[in-house]
C-alpha cells in the first residue's frame, strides 16, 4: 500500500466516532468572517502602529509623492535602487534626478547583483492599521519577492484606500490574489529578532530600514 | 580522521531524545543548573508580560479562541477530506506532494530530493516538524550539510546543543555564552565572527547576518516547515521574525516543505483567526515582522521546484483517541511553556523531546506511544494548575488530557511485572482531581512552614509522595500552589 493510502486509511479509522460527513454541519463555527475592527481613525492608527515597529512613516498627497520618495531615499543614504517594472514613471524620474542610480529587473538581477544594491521602492497591496502591517501581493508594481528582501532599505508606498482596520478585512481583500496563485509577503516593521535574552534587535536578514509613505 | 572531523555541520550532543532518562531525573539535573534557571525565569517572565498586554488589547479574544478551536476541530474531524483537498490544490499549483508514514520515510524522501539536485548543502527555516524527525542528522549521514538560519537555531546548532523552547530555542543561553559560541564555531563553518565582537545582542545578530548571507546567496535547496497549509488554495504559510525564512523561501531554486498532517486549515479566510491568535500568543506582538505565503510555483518568482512532504509520524495515533485528539489543534505558539511553573523551573531539556512544556507533556506520549520511560513520565510533569489551558489560543484542555494519559500510563504499567499499583493508584488519587491535589499541597505547605529555610522540598507526604518521590518539588508557599499562582501570575496578566 502506498504511504498516501496508508495514512488516509489510518486517518479514516481514527475518525470512526465522527458520524456526520459534512464538516460544516458537523462542527459549526460561530464566527463572522471579514468584520472590520472598530477604531476612531484608521489611517492615524496605521501610522502609529508602523512607527511602533520602528518603521519610518511619511504622509503626503499625490502631487508631492514622487519628490517625497526621492527625498526619503536620499536622507536614508540610499545611492542605488531597484525598481520593479510596474512602478510609476514619475517616481523613476524623481529618483533619477536626485542622483540615485536606478536598476530595472528585466532580465532578472542575480542574487549577487541584488545584494550590491542599496534599496528598493515598491507599491503595496494592503495596509493593516491595527497591526502596522503592509502586505505585498507581488503584482508588477511590487516585483518578485527577492527584490524586497535582499537590499537593505525598502521604501513602500501605501495608498490610503489600501489601508484597512485589521487582519480580517485584509484577508478578505487578499483572497482574490491568493486564488490567482500570487505569493504574499506580510511585513510588520523591519526585520527583527528577540532570540538573545529576548532583547529586540532590529535588522537581521531582511531589510534593516523600512520607509513607509502613506499617500492621501 | 575521526568521525567528528568528517562531519559537515556541528555535532549535536550525543544520545537521542528517547534515550534520555525519565522526566523526573532530567528535571533534577536541570534544577541544579542555576544559570539555566536564571535565564529561563527572565525570559519566560518577559514573554508572559508581553503576551498579556497584547491579548488585553483585543476585546473579542475569547471569541477568537473559540473560533480557533472550532476551525481546528472541524479540520481534525474531517482530516481525510481536507488532506485530499490540500493535495489536489497543491498539485494544481505546480507543487509535488509526498506522503510519509513516519520520520524515517520523511527523511528518506527529503534526502532523495536533495541528492537528486546534486547538491551537498541546504539552508533551513526553523521548523518543529524537521526537528521532530531529526532531519538534520539524516542529511548529515548522507553527506549533506543542513544550515539552520534562524538566529536561535544557529546558536543551538553552533553550540552543539538541543533546543529548549519552541519559539526561542536558545532561551537557556545568555549573551556571553552566545558570544563565546559564535567566536569559537563560526570560523569553522563559514564567515567568522569578528574577533573583537562584544556580547551586545545587536552585534551578535550582525555576526549572524554576515555568517549566513553567503549561505543564502549560494543556496540551491531550502527546507522549511509550515505553520498552516490551506486546503482550499494549496497555500503554505511561514510565520517568522528575522527574514531568514523569506531568504530560504525565495532565493533557492528548490523548496522542500515538511508539514505535519495536522497543519491543514480549510480555507484562506480561516487565516484571519489564526493570524490574530498566533503572533499575540507566541511573541506577544500584534504581528510578527514577516509572514510568507506561497501557493505552489509562481512563474518567475522564487523556487520553481516546489515539494511538500505530508508527515504522519504518530499524528494518527493522537487522532484516534477522542480525548487526546484536541492536542493536535496546537499551533506551536509556546504560550503554555511560558506560563508553566514546572517548565520555568526545569527548562525544555528535561522533557526529552523537541516539544517541551505542557504541550510536550501531552503530545509526546501520544505521538510516540507510552512504551518508553520518558513518555511514561511526561504526563506527570505538571501540577495541573490549569494555566496552560487559560493561555492556549486554541483552548487545548491540557490538564484534562494529562489526567487521561496518567490513567493510560497506569493501565499500561499494570500489565507489567515491575508495576507499583498502590503508588500509581495513590498518585492517580492526588492528581486526578484538583481538590485532591490542593489537599496534598496544603499538607506540603504545612511542611514548608515548618522548614522555612529550605527551598526544596523532599518527597511530599503520602499520598503525593507516590508521585514526588523521584524528584524534589520546588518549595510551595504556605498557601496552596494554585492559590499562589492566581495571586501572582493573575496580577501579571492584568
Ligand atoms: S498547546 Fe496551546 S498554548 Fe501550548 S503551544 Fe500549543 S497552541 Fe500554544
Name the descriptors.
heterodimer; A: 216 residues; alpha/beta; Rossmann fold; six-stranded parallel beta sheet; four-stranded mixed beta sheet; B: 494 residues; 12 strands; globular; disordered N terminus; disordered C terminus; binds iron/sulfur cluster
Descriptive report:
The complex is a heterodimer of chains A (216) and B (494). Chain A contains 7 helices and 12 strands. Chain A is an alpha/beta fold and 216 residues long. Chain A has one domain: NagB/RpiA/CoA transferase-like (Rossmann fold, 3-Layer(aba) Sandwich), CATH 3.40.50.10420. In chain A, strands 1-12-7-4-2-3 form a 6-stranded parallel sheet, with helices on both faces. In chain A, helix 4 (65-75) crosses helix 5 (89-97). The longest helix of chain A has 13 residues, at 167-179. Chain B is of the alpha/beta class and 494 residues long. A 6-stranded parallel sheet of chain B has the order 1-10-7-4-2-3, with helices on both faces. A 4-stranded mixed sheet of chain B has the order 8-5-6-9. Chain B has a two-stranded antiparallel sheet with strand order 11-12. The longest helix of chain B is centred in the first third of the chain and has 23 residues, at 34-56. Mean pLDDT of chain B is 84; it is low at 1-5, 417-481 and 490-494. Strand 9 (184-187) of chain A pairs antiparallel with strand 9 of chain B. Iron/sulfur cluster is lined by residues 281, 330-336, 359, 391-394, 396 of chain B.
Amino acid at each position: 500500500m502506498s504511504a498516501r493510502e496508508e495514512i488516509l486509511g489510518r486517518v479514516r479509522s481514527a475518525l470512526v466516532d465522527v458520524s456526520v460527513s459534512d464538516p460544516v454541519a458537523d462542527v459549526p463555527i460561530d464566527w463572522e468572517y471579514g468584520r472590520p475592527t472598530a477604531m476612531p481613525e484608521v489611517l492615524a492608527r496605521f501610522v502609529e502602529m508602523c512607527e511602533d515597529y520602528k518603521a519610518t512613516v511619511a504622509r503626503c498627497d499625490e502631487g508631492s509623492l514622487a519628490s517625497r520618495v526621492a527625498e526619503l531615499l536620499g536622507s536614508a543614504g540610499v545611492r542605488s535602487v531597484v525598481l520593479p517594472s510596474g512602478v510609476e514613471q514619475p517616481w523613476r524620474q524623481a529618483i533619477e534626478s536626485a542622483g540615485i542610480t536606478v536598476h530595472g529587473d528585466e532580465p532578472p538581477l542575480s542574487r549577487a547583483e541584488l545584494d550590491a544594491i542599496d534599496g528598493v521602492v515598491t507599491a503595496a497591496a494592503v495596509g493593516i492599521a491595527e497591526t502596522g502591517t503592509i502586505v505585498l501581493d507581488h503584482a508588477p508594481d511590487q516585483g518578485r519577492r527577492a527584490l524586497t528582501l535582499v537590499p537593505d532599505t525598502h521604501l513602500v508606498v501605501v495608498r490610503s484606500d489600501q489601508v484597512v482596520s485589521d487582519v480580517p478585512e485584509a484577508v478578505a481583500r487578499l483572497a482574490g490574489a491568493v486564488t490567482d496563485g500570487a505569493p504574499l509577503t506580510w511585513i510588520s516593521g523591519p526585520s527583527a529578532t528577540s532570540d538573545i535574552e529576548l532583547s529586540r534587535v532590529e535588522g537581521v536578514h531582511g531589510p534593516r530600514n523600512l520607509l513607509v509613505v502613506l499617500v492621501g | 580522521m575521526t568521525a567528528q572531523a568528517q562531519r559537515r555541520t556541528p555535532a549535536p550532543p550525543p544520545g537521542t531524545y528517547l534515550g534520555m532518562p525519565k522526566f523526573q531525573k532530567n528535571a533534577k539535573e536541570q534544577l541544579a543548573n542555576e544559570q539555566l534557571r536564571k535565564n529561563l525565569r527572565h525570559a519566560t517572565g518577559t514573554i508572559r508580560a508581553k503576551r498579556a498586554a497584547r491579548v488585553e488589547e483585543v476585546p473579542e479574544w475569547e471569541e477568537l479562541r473559540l473560533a480557533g478551536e472550532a476551525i481546528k476541530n472541524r479540520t481534525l474531524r474531517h482530516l481525510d477530506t481536507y488532506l485530499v483537498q490540500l493535495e489536489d490544490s497543491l498539485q494544481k499549483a505546480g507543487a509535488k506532494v509526498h506522503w510519509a508514514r513516519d520520520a524515517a520515510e520523511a527523511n528518506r524522501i527529503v534526502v532523495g530530493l536533495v541528492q537528486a539536485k546534486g547538491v551537498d548543502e541546504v539552508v533551513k527555516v526553523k521548523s518543529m516538524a524537521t526537528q521532530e524527525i531529526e532531519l538534520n542528522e539524516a542529511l548529515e549521514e548522507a553527506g549533506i550539510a543542513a544550515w539552520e538560519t534562524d538566529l536561535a537555531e544557529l546558536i543551538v546548532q553552533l553550540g552543539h546543543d538541543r533546543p529548549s523552547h519552541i519559539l526561542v530555542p536558545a532561551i537557556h543561553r545568555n549573551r556571553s555564552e552566545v558570544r563565546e559560541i559564535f567566536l569559537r564555531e563560526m570560523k569553522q563553518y563559514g564567515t567568522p565572527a569578528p574577533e573583537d565582537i562584544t556580547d551586545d545582542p545587536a552585534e551578535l545578530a550582525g555576526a549572524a547576518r554576515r555568517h549566513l548571507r553567503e549561505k543564502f546567496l549560494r543556496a540551491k535547496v531550502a527546507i522549511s516547515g509550515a505553520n498552516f497549509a490551506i486546503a482550499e488554495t494549496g497555500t503554505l504559510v511561514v510565520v517568522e521574525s528575522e527574514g531568514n525564512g523569506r531568504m530560504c523561501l525565495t532565493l533557492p531554486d528548490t523548496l522542500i516543505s515538511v508539514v505535519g498532517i495536522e497543519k491543514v486549515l480549510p480555507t484562506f479566510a480561516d487565516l484571519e483567526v489564526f493570524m490574530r491568535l498566533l503572533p499575540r500568543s507566541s511573541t506577544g506582538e500584534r504581528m510578527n515582522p514577516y509572514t510568507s505565503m506561497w501557493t505552489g510555483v509562481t512563474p518567475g518568482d522564487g523556487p520553481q521546484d516546489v515539494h511538500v512532504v505530508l508527515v504522519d509520524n504518530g499524528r494518527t495515533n493522537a487522532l484516534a483517541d477522542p480525548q487526546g485528539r484536541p492536542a493536535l489543534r496546537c499551533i506551536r505558539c509556546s504560550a503554555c511553556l511560558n506560563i508553566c511553573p514546572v517548565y520555568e523551573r526545569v527548562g525544555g531539556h528535561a522533557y526529552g523531546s523537541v516539544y517541551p512544556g505542557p504541550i510536550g507533556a501531552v503530545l509526546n506520549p501520544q505521538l510516540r506511544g507510552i512504551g518508553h520511560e520518558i513518555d511514561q513520565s511526561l504526563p506527570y510533569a505538571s501540577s495541573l494548575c490549569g494555566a496552560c489551558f487559560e493561555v492556549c489560543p486554541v483552548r487545548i484542555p491540557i490538564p484534562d488530557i494529562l489526567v487521561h494519559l496518567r490513567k493510560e500510563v497506569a493501565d499500561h504499567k499494570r500489565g507489567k511485572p515491575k508495576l507499583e499499583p498502590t503508588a500509581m493508584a495513590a498518585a492517580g488519587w492526588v492528581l486526578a482531581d484538583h481538590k485532591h491535589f490542593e489537599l496534598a499541597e496544603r499538607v506540603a505547605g504545612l511542611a514548608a512552614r515548618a522548614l522555612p529555610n529550605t527551598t526544596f522540598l523532599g518527597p511530599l507526604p503520602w499520598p503525593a509522595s507516590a508521585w514526588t518521590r523521584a524528584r524534589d518539588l520546588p518549595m510551595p508557599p504556605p498557601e496552596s500552589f494554585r492559590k499562589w499562582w492566581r495571586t501572582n501570575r493573575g496580577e501579571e496578566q492584568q
